[in-house]
Specification:
alpha+beta, 37% strand
C-alpha cells in the first residue's frame, strides 16, 4: 500500500510540473511572436520609406542630368557651328547667340528680307553626327514691300559630313529636301570667289586618266607627296605641260578652279622651250552615270567632256 501511495504521489507531481512547463512555454511563445511581427512591420515600413526616398532622389537627379545634358549639347553644338553655312543656291543658315539665347537665322545672300529667325528651344542628338533642332521663329510684321507672318515652330535636321571642308546637310526653312551647306566665317557668299579646299581631297577623288573624244587626256596624280596634273595627247610626241597643284578653289560641290604651276621646259631640237607659268584649270564633275568631267584643256577656249578610264592602256592607247 505504501509503495502504491508513493507512486500515486510521484505521478501527481509529474503532472503538475508538466502543466506548468506547458503554460510557461506557450506564454513565452506568444510574446516572441508578437515582438517578431512588430519588428518586421517596422522594418518593412522603414524599407518602404527609404526606397521611396531613394527613388524620388534618383528621379530628381535623372531629370537634372537630362536637363543639364540638353543644355550642354545645345552649347556644344553652337560653339562648334557658330557662323555662316551656305548652299550652292546662295541660301544660308546662321548659328549665333543673342542676349544669352541661342539663335538660328535663315537667309539668302544679297537678297531683300525679311527672313525667318528664331530661338532654339531644344536640341536632340539623333546620331553620332546628327541633330534635330526645334526653333521658335519670331513673328514679323508686314509692310508695303514685304509680307509678314505669325510666330511658328520649325524642326530642322542637320548632319555633319566628313571631308576636307566643313560641310553639313540640312533642310532650309520652307524647303522639303536636304542640301549641303558649306561653312564660312565671314558674312558673305563664299561661292562668289570660290572656297579654297584641300588639294589632297581633290586628288583622291580624281586620281587617274580622263580622256576626251579628240584623244587629249588629263592625268591627276601624286608622286613623292607632290600632287600634279599632266596634260597630253595619246599617241603623240611630247613634251606636254605638267604642273604642280598650288591651290584648289571650290565653287559649290562639283566645280573647281585649280591653279597649276606648269614646270618650265628647256627645249630640244624638235620643240622649243617655255618658262614656268601658272595655269588656272577649270573643271566640273558631271552628274552622269559614266564618270566624266567638263574641263578647259590648256591652249583652248571651249570646254570639252573628259571620260574617266580605269585602265587607259588597254585597247592600244598610250
Amino acid at each position: 500500500m505504501k509503495k502504491t501511495a508513493v507512486i500515486i504521489v510521484l505521478l501527481s507531481v509529474v503532472l503538475i510540473l508538466s502543466s506548468c512547463i506547458t503554460v510557461n512555454i506557450n506564454s513565452n511563445g506568444d510574446q516572441t511572436t508578437d515582438a517578431v511581427t512588430t519588428a518586421a512591420q517596422t522594418e518593412e515600413q522603414t524599407t518602404t520609406a527609404t526606397t521611396e526616398t531613394q527613388t524620388d532622389a534618383a528621379t530628381t537627379a535623372a531629370e537634372t542630368d537630362v536637363e543639364q545634358t540638353e543644355q550642354e549639347l545645345t552649347a556644344e553644338l553652337f560653339n562648334s557651328h557658330k557662323g555662316y553655312w551656305t548652299n550652292e543656291d546662295g541660301k544660308f543658315i546662321y548659328f549665333g547667340e543673342e542676349n544669352g539665347a541661342y539663335r538660328v537665322s535663315f537667309g539668302i545672300w544679297n537678297a531683300g528680307g525679311p527672313f525667318p529667325s528664331g530661338t532654339v528651344t531644344s536640341v536632340t542628338k539623333t546620331g553620332e553626327k546628327s541633330y534635330l533642332l526645334k526653333i521658335s521663329i519670331d513673328a514679323v510684321q508686314g509692310n508695303d514691300e514685304n509680307g509678314g507672318w505669325e510666330a511658328y515652330e520649325v524642326t530642322t535636321p542637320l548632319t555633319d559630313v566628313d571631308g576636307a571642308r566643313r560641310v553639313m546637310t540640312a533642310v532650309y526653312d520652307g524647303d522639303t529636301e536636304l542640301s549641303k551647306f558649306y561653312y564660312s566665317e565671314k558674312a558673305e557668299n563664299p561661292f562668289l570667289d570660290g572656297v579654297e579646299t584641300d588639294a589632297a581631297d581633290f586628288v583622291i577623288n580624281h586620281l587617274g586618266y580622263w580622256t576626251n573624244d579628240d584623244g587629249k587626256y588629263i592625268y591627276v596624280g601624286e608622286e613623292n607627296g607632290e600632287k600634279f596634273i599632266s596634260f597630253a595627247v595619246w599617241n603623240a610626241g611630247g613634251p606636254f605641260p605638267v604642273g604642280d597643284i598650288k591651290t584648289v578653289k571650290a565653287f559649290g560641290s562639283r566645280t573647281y578652279v585649280i591653279t597649276v604651276g606648269i614646270r618650265g621646259f628647256e627645249g630640244n631640237e624638235e620643240v622649243g622651250s617655255w618658262d614656268p607659268y601658272d595655269f588656272d584649270f577649270h573643271i566640273t564633275d558631271n552628274e552622269t552615270t559614266d564618270r566624266s568631267v567638263t574641263a578647259v584643256y590648256p591652249g583652248e577656249e571651249t570646254e570639252s567632256v573628259f571620260y574617266y578610264q580605269e585602265n587607259p592602256f588597254a585597247g592600244g592607247m598610250g
